[in-house]
TrEMBL record:
Source species, domain of life: Bacteria
Reaction(s) the record says it catalyses: guanosine(1516) in 16S rRNA + S-adenosyl-L-methionine = N(2)-methylguanosine(1516) in 16S rRNA + S-adenosyl-L-homocysteine + H(+)
Keywords: Cytoplasm, Methyltransferase, rRNA processing, S-adenosyl-L-methionine, Transferase
Name of the molecule in the record: Ribosomal RNA small subunit methyltransferase J
Record gene name: rsmJ
Binding site for S-adenosyl-L-methionine: 126-127, 176
GO biological process, one term: methylation
Class in the EC hierarchy, top level: transferase
Role according to the record: Specifically methylates the guanosine in position 1516 of 16S rRNA.
Region forming the signal peptide: none
Family that this chain belongs to: Belongs to the methyltransferase superfamily. RsmJ family.
Entry coiled-coil feature ranges: none
Length: 252
């Protein structure tokens, strides 16, 4: 595992583990460069829990954030979807044969998992070390066979794009940046607070998109709230829903 000691400087993290989780706890402790079961947890804003097969995070206010694709409390298994007629599928070019997608901001994995359900192949990038750890554990535990081929990377999106251009076989790039006034309506309020603390804001979102547009892919899609401005000019078509829209940039 990579060491991410500089990533959690502002808000310290520790790991709390039961006996059954100690081996995995030690692995994540190396990744985070943090202690396991410290004598006092009051010095740590985030507490990463490893309890048997369950992994989750709480903050100092005891707000919980957990990723579990099988428990489905965030509607990972969307029933009654419209398949290739879903807006996200149209935006990414499903009808044009695009199937391989690079998701630059996996977050809680909600859109990534839905894309897998729609028969896309997805490579995901997540920059938050804690979210990456929660996602990694969730993908390892899931019993949903269609998620077993998911490829998850821990990296900053801009760095990942610069280091991997021309090296990955993808048809389209998907980007869902965070910014101050964005609302993640799929998350309950308390989980949203923890999520924001972990992710922060994508101040470099425009730069990430600019770099994505240099990739040899057929289109780049940016998810935006309905009334938000375009992240960059050049949108070919916007696929609009009631709350969000998908801005499509055709590259080649």
């Amino acid at each position: 595992m990579s060491v991410v000691s500089d990533s959690l400087n502002s808000k310290k993290i520790c790991i709390l583990s039961d006996e059954a989780g100690l081996v995995r706890a030690a692995q994540w402790a190396e990744f985070f460069q943090c202690p396991v079961n410290p004598s006092s947890i009051d010095d740590y804003f985030f507490r990463f829990h490893v309890e048997g097969d369950r992994v989750y995070v709480r903050d100092a206010e005891k707000r919980l954030l957990e990723i579990d694709f099988d428990k489905n409390h965030l509607d990972y298994e969307r029933r009654g979807h419209q398949g290739k007629n879903e807006l996200i599928a149209k935006a990414l070019g499903y009808a044009k044969g695009c199937r391989k997608v690079l998701d630059l901001s996996v977050g809680m994995g909600i859109d990534s998992v839905f894309l897998m359900q729609l028969n896309f192949q997805v490579i995901g990038v997540e920059r938050s070390p804690v979210l990456y750890a929660l996602l990694k554990e969730a993908f390892a535990r899931t019993e949903k066979q269609y998620l077993k081929s998911y490829q998850l990377h821990f990296a900053d999106a801009l760095t990942f794009l610069r280091e991997n251009k021309g090296k990955l076989d993808v048809d389209a790039i998907y980007f869902d940046p965070m910014y101050p006034h964005k609302k993640k309506s799929a998350l309950p309020k308390q989980e949203m607070v923890v999520f924001r603390d972990l992710v922060g804001h994508d101040a470099d979102a425009a730069e990430v998109l600019k770099e994505a547009l240099t990739w040899p892919v057929r289109r780049v899609v940016v998810k935006r709230p309905m009334k938000a401005e375009e992240l960059l000019p050049g949108v070919i078509h916007s696929f609009e829903g009631k709350v969000v829209r998908y801005d499509s940039y055709v590259v080649g």
